[in-house]
Fold this protein.
Amino acid sequence: MAKPLSVFGELVRNFFKKASTQGYPFKKASVDSNFRAQIKYDPALCVGCQLCVKNCPADAIKIIQINPEDKPQVGADGKVIPVHRKFECKIDLTRCIFCAQCVDSCFKKALSSSQDFELASTDRSSLVYIKKYQDASQDKADSEEKEQK
Ligand code: SF4
Ligand code: SF4
C-alpha cells in the first residue's frame, strides 16, 4: 500500500506537469492521422463491384446504381459506346462500427476514413450518410457557387 507521504509527493509532481488529457470539447481535439471516423466516398472512382458491401461486418453500407436502365449505345462507326455507370453510396451511421474494412476492400480507393468523429445527433435520419453521384461539371458548378458566397 502506498504511504500517504509518497502519494502527496506524486500529487505535487503531477500538479506542475503538463496535462496528459485534452480539453475537449472546449478545445478541438486532435486525432491521429490513422484515426478511423466517418467513411467518405468518391463516386467518381467507384465501379460498383460491391466488395465493400459484401465485406462490411455490420451491414452498414450500400452502393446503389442510379442508371440501371442505361444500355450501351452503338456509335456511327458501329462500335459499342460503353455506359458510364453511376453509383451512390449510403452509409448508416447507426450501424457502422468504423472498422474501415470497406476502405481496405475498395481497390479503387473510392472509400476513405476521415477524422470527422463529431457525429452525434438527436435525429436518427441525419445519421444516414448518402453521397449522391454528381457529374464532374456539377461538382465544378457547386464549388464555384461556394467560392462566390
Ligand atoms: S467502416 Fe466497417 S462497419 Fe462501417 S461501413 Fe465500413 S465496413 Fe461497414
Ligand atoms: S469496393 Fe469500392 S469500387 Fe467497389 S462498390 Fe465499394 S466503393 Fe465502389
Q: What stands out?
A: Residues 46-52, 63, 105-106, 108, 110-111 surround iron/sulfur cluster (ligand 2) (CB under 6 Å). Helices lie at 4-15, 51-55, 101-105, 136-148. The radius of gyration is 24 Å.
